[in-house]
């Protein structure tokens, strides 16, 4: 199988601290050539910047997740500006809105999201978007900022085909994770089928959302092959073509030289 790019994972998570070397070895064994680690707050973003300096072919995004929006301070933007100057910090994220858990007040989520959205545009970095049960407000905010939007991806996409159409019309990518393999994921399968190949990414969101047949286990980048196989089947193409296309798309979005 051609090399794969896990476009969103959390290898800095404590669930990997005891066997990270083994996880990285399984990545290599399964031809997972690259991974992007997404930050959730200042602490995880700092851990990611440290990890990518030690491990080749890991890339990072830094930012404040909507769950942590209540902890955000404007001084975090100054620190983010320093981090994105590093060669393998390639995006701002994950940022967005989450009305499913509401760990932070919704008005705070919206305010912090807009600040980071503007930051990404100012610094010419793509954004990694997290959105759950909040597509209406997300689309409203993006539409209100349409003159100054960064490039970006809707990670672990879980919305409808109708919302997907609007994101795609704005130029965004959609990324599909483990839930695309679940037996009851009919609507998600419809959305993946609808998504054009040139706007398609795949991810694990490790350690969360392990795909079938690993569901219920700790997820890890090596499991992205199951996502790739399912998406390839939905698109009616072979796995090598899917791997090549998603590698090209991910490198293009995050301005990564595929030869390096």
Topology (elements, then pairings):
Layout: E1 4-9, H1 20-29, E2 32-38, H2 42-54, E3 58-62, H3 75-83, E4 89-98, H4 106-122, E5 127-132, H5 135-144, E6 152-154, H6 161-169, E7 173-176, H7 186-194, E8 200-202, H8 224-235, H9 239-253
Parallel strand pairs: 1-2, 2-3, 3-4, 4-5, 5-6, 6-7, 7-8
Helix pairs in contact: 8-9
Put the structure in a nutshell.
This protein has 260 residues and is an alpha/beta fold.
Question: What this model shows, in words?
Answer:
There is one protein chain. With 260 residues, the chain is of the alpha/beta class. 40% of the residues lie in helices and 17% in strands. The protein has an 8-stranded parallel beta sheet. The longest helix is centred in the middle third of the chain and has 17 residues, at 106-122. It is globular, with a radius of gyration of 17 Å. The two termini are 20 Å apart.
Work out the radius of gyration.
17 Å
Point out poorly predicted stretches.
none
Computed structural class: alpha/beta
Strand order of the largest sheet: 1-2-3-4-5-6-7-8
Distance between the termini: 20 Å
- Large-scale geometry: globular
Order of helices and strands: EHEHEHEHEHEHEHEHH
Observed structural traits:
eight-stranded parallel sheet, globular, 260 residues, alpha/beta
């Amino acid at each position: 199988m051609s090399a794969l790019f896990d476009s969103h994972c959390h290898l800095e998570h404590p669930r990997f601290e005891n066997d990270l070397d083994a996880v990285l070895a399984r990545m290599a064994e399964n031809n997972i050539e690259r991974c992007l680690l997404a930050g959730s707050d200042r602490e995880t973003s700092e851990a990611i910047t440290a990890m990518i300096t030690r491990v080749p072919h890991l890339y990072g995004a830094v930012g404040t997740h909507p769950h942590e929006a209540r902890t955000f301070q404007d001084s975090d933007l100054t620190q983010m500006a320093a981090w994105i100057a590093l060669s393998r910090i390639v995006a701002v994220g994950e940022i967005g809105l989450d009305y499913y858990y509401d760990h932070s007040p919704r008005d705070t989520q919206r305010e912090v999201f807009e600040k980071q959205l503007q930051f990404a545009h100012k610094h010419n970095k793509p954004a990694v978007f997290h959105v759950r049960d909040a597509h209406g407000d997300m689309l409203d905010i993006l539409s209100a900022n349409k003159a100054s939007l960064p490039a970006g991806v809707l990670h672990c996409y879980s919305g409808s085909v109708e919302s997907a159409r609007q994101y795609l019309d704005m130029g965004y990518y959609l990324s599909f994770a483990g839930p695309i393999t679940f037996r009851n994921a009919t609507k998600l399968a419809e959305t993946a089928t609808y998504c054009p190949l040139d706007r398609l990414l795949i991810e694990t969101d490790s350690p969360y959302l392990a795909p079938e047949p690993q569901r219920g286990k700790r997820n890890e980048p090596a499991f992205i092959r199951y996502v790739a196989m399912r998406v390839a089947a939905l698109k009616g193409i072979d796995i090598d073509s899917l791997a090549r296309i998603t590698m090209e798309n991910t490198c293009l979005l995050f301005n990564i030289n595929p030869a390096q």
